[in-house]
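re: ur question from earlier - yeah i can do the single chain one, its not a big deal. heres the input i used so u can compare w yours
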Amino acid sequence: MRKIILLAAGMFLSLQFLNAQTAEDSVKTTVNKLFEAMKNSDGALLKSTFADSAILQTIGTDNTGASVIKNETVADFADIVSKQTKGSLDERIEFGTIKIDGALAMVWAPYKFYYNGTFSHCGVDAFQLVRMKNGWKIQYLIDTRRKSGCN
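and the output i got, formated as tokens:
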């Protein structure tokens, strides 16, 4: 009887581990789809990665060096992307940290951005995703941008 309980517990833990991998892979797929859309100048695909009420922000600096937050709508972002030459937008990320709790996921992803094959800037993308009926959607994206310290 003890062997059966241990076997059942082992199978349960294995299934839990596989589910966690599947959720993480699904989150990565959504994030990667965003960058695929950028690279292919596909505004419709880009929009499909975001939740209807998504918020996009960038942390920049003003003339005094103080931090400022700039807001952008998904529609404006998709419009800008769709007007670019295919292949001109190339954001290369590294999945640093991914945390998932039920229907909430967080992704911390350092990146380097290239425009027309030339390095432009680097920073970090911080995503909050929500698992909806039709899969993971980006609810919140905030990023930093800098030209130095990008190694």
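The chain has three helices and seven strands. not sure if urs matches, ping me
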